Structures are given as C-alpha cells and as structure tokens.
Amino acid sequence: MSDLLQAFVHTLRYEAEDIVGIELRPLPGEAFPPFDAGSHIDLHLSNGMLRSYSLLNPPGETRKYVIAVLKDRASRGGSRCVHEQLRIGMRLKISAPRNNFKLHEDAGHSVLLAGGIGVTPILCMARRLRKLGRSFELIYCARSRQSAAFIDDIDTLGAPVHWHFDAERGGPPDLKALLARPSPADASNTHYYACGPAVMLDGFEAACAALGHAHAHIERFSAVEVAAASDARQHYTVELKRSGKLITVTTETSLLAALRAAKVEPPTSCEEGICGSCETRVLEGLPDHRDSVLSAAERAAGKVMMVCVSGCRSERLVLDL
Ligand code: FES
Predict the structure, then answer these.
(1) Are 161 and 140 in contact (CB under 8 A)?
(2) Would you state the pLDDT for residue 2?
(3) In terms of pTM, does the model score above 0.85?
C-alpha cells in the first residue's frame, strides 16, 4: 500500500441531482502534495472500501483537494458510503494524487468531452488551460440540466462549450459528428480528452479512430473486463531485479499474489487495474496487459505494466521490483 495522507472533510456541497461536492483539507499546519490536471486520489472509506475520484479544483492547490461524487444507483457501497456516512469534520485517509490522464499543455488546441460526473477531471483541465491561455473547447453531455454539475463554473471559464442534455435533445449525442468539427489549430496538434460512462468512452474511442484523431485520451471510472491474450502463459517465471528474487506464477495464483507471497509489496490501491498505483517497469519479457489505464501505444511499448491484474506472454518476465 502506498503512503497515505490524513485529511478532514471541510465542506459538503450540493452540486446537482445526486452529486455531492467534497472539499478535503489537510490537518492544521500541514499541506497536501501538489497535483496536476487529470489527477485523482483514493478515498479510504469507513466501510473499508477504497474509491478513486478525480480532483476538480485548480491544479497546484495544496491547501485543499476538491472532488465530487455521484450517488450511483448500482453502487456496490462506495458512493453510497460517501453520500450517507461522510460528515463535515470527519477525518479520513486518502492517497497522494496520481495521474493517468495527463494534460498535454503544449497542444495547439484541446477538445474536452465530459459525460455526467466525468466532468470533474475535465473541469480541472479546463481551468488549467484557461490559466495558461491555451486554445480549448468543451463538450458537456448529461442526462438533464438538473443532473449536470458545475454548469456555472464552466460558464465562467468563457470557453466555447457545446452543451448536450439528453432530456432536451431526445437522446444521446452523435459523438462522431461533434468530434468531426474542424479544430481552429493544426489538426495534428489537437488533443482530445474524454471522461464519462463506459458507453460514452467506447463511442469516443471509436469516433476518434474513425476520424483519424491521433491524440485521444480517456479516463475510466470502472475497470473494463479484459480477457487474457490468446498467447498468455499459464505458467511463467518472474525475476525481480531489485530484490534479487525469482518467483513462479501458475494458474493457482495471480502475479500480485505471487509477489506478496515472496514478501515483495508493490504499491497498490484499487487492485482492479484502474488506478495506476501498481505501475511497474518491465525490464524484459512480454506483459499481457489487462488493465484499464495504459493506452494502446503504452501497451505496445511494453515498458510498464499494472501488476495487480496483468499477466505474461513470455516464459520469463523481468520486473524492476
Ligand atoms: S492497484 Fe490499481 S491499477 Fe493496480
């Protein structure tokens, strides 16, 4: 487990239907580590669950972290616990910020697509781009105006925004049409970002691929079920370079379990392949990536892997652990 920070709940705010905004502060006299746009933190909840939420306040603030949580009707306990148990003044443990959704601040133009509560990292990115004076636009999609958080905050940024409320337009947006609109900058230097429900992210990825948008970035809330590769090994050995150990992974155990059994503890948090905390350098061998963090290019490069969920496609793997 990575180092945890102590925080307390300073403010709880209604932000939209079923969405609560939470301002966390460090203990008196302390400061949080700085963060950059697209970062998230993990909350260690009173029911023992751990949930990741994107930071939405302006990057760099160290006196507070602000997140927003949607009460998920299909909640497995995480968002329900946040909505029903968190109280002002309550202390809780959080992780330091991590970023799997980095903003390319030098892009000629950025297109930011938010779906529902996926607006949180998008708002943070928009604030950063506004501060830097960079060219950007937003596409904000939600079921209805009442369910859309931070409309006023987005309005005050003064950036071009395409609003899409399903209830007013009779259905979900045509993402391909929205993303096909010409960018004011050199198209090859335009970056596209999306955060929202899985179905929207799948549509975004398909649209970007069809339109030839090379710089497409997404952040998922929940793990995608990734099947093992057809050439994934059932049995392989892993050399741990720094600790000088050799372990074996079989069908009886996962890589993470084998590491722990050898008393090697990589930092972990979600253990579902979505938070990025267990990212480990691969020195040799072919990982079988089963996470929801790495991009297609990062997977192909094979230089890092999420050891909590991934496997191996070669007889031997050498890790920087
Ligand atoms: S622990 Fe979260 S990606 Fe591995």
Answers:
(1) yes
(2) 52
(3) no
Examine residue 43 and state whether it is found in any structural domain, yes or no: yes
- Verify whether ligand 1 is closer than 6 Å to residue 266 (CB atom): no
Question: Are 81 and 53 found together in one domain?
Answer: yes
In a domain, 228, yes or no: no
The last residue of a domain, from among 63, 79, 98:
98
Establish if 227 belongs to a structural domain: no
- Check which CATH number belongs to the domain holding 36 and give it: 2.40.30.10
CB of 68 closer than 6 angstroms to any ligand 1 atom: no
Number of domains in the chain: 3
For residue 274, the ligand 1 atom closest to its alpha carbon is 3
Euclidean distance between CA atoms 188 and 64, whole angstroms: 36
> How far apart (Å, rounded) are the C-alpha atoms in residues 129 and 126?
5
- With a cut of 70, say whether residue 1 has pLDDT above it: no
Residue with more model confidence, 294 or 262: 262
Beta strands in the chain (DSSP E): 4-16, 19-26, 39-44, 50-54, 65-70, 91-95, 98-99, 109-115, 136-142, 161-165, 190-195, 216-219, 236-240, 245-249, 279-284, 287-288, 304-306, 311-312, 316-319
Residue 33 belongs to domain spanning: 4-98
Summarize pLDDT for 178-187 with one digit per residue, the tens: 999 887 777 7
Q: Which residue among 255, 292, 308 is best mutated to probe the pocket of ligand 1, counting the most ligand atoms within 8 A of its Cβ?
A: 308
- CATH number of the domain that 272 lies in? 3.10.20.30
For residue 60, name the pLDDT band (cuts at 50, 70, 90). confident
Q: How far is the CA of 156 from the centre of ligand 1 (A)?
A: 36
